[in-house]
Amino acid sequence: MLDKFMPLCAVLFPLATLAAPVRVLIVTGGHSHETSFYTIFEELPDIRAIVDPHPMPYRSGDLRKNYDVLVLYDSMQEIDEEERRNLTKFVEGGKGIVILHHALVDYSDWPWWYEEVMGARWLKSQSKPLVWKTTWQHDVDLVAYPVMEHPVVQGIGRFEINDETYKGMWFSPDITVLLRTDHPSSDGPLVWVSPCKKSRVVCIELGHGRKAHVNPSYRRLVHNAIRWAAGSATPGP
Q1: CATH of the domain at 141
Q2: Distance CA 68, CA 63 (A)
Q3: Fewest CB within 10 angstroms: 69, 184, 229, 236, which?
Q4: Is 13 in a helix, a strand, or coil?
Q5: For residue 236, what pLDDT band results from cuts at 50, 70 and 90?
């Protein structure tokens, strides 16, 4: 039902009834995903979401005019100079970024992106053949728990989720971890605020497939993260 929206930029969900919904651009591409991902946004009256596959969003001019938050659910390494400029302008213009699951792999050779914007990086070998050193494991049952009070984790307690885990990533010492797990297949941090000074950036490692997408705590996390990244004072209902 939602597949027809994926190849081209399209309004996926109805215009919110609120006077000023958060204008969200969802960037996909480079990694297959289940359409259950889009159901996260269907019943959020304070969010107006549009989807556009990479790299088209970064070739359409100044994104700051039309969007408050970028939700990244792509998995890309290649980004040309024009695309870098437009993405950089969005971040340095104070707009919000929410980076979900496999989008944490994005631009692993762009130091500004992984050091300042994400505060984390997938690692690969330094000699040929170039392979990922960071590992992943599918279909993991884990327990996640908040480690501090913050609008992104408001209303979220300890919860169980079936998802994919990552291990062996680099993390900046300046990130603020909000949610963790003790599962041995994970590095530990599941949700963090990046060290970015000019924009509100939230990274959420969770979100591989349907079992995660329909999890109420995960859906709440994504909603809270979007609202906080947009500068909203409080998370949604």
Answers
A1: 3.40.50.880
A2: 9
A3: 184
A4: coil
A5: low
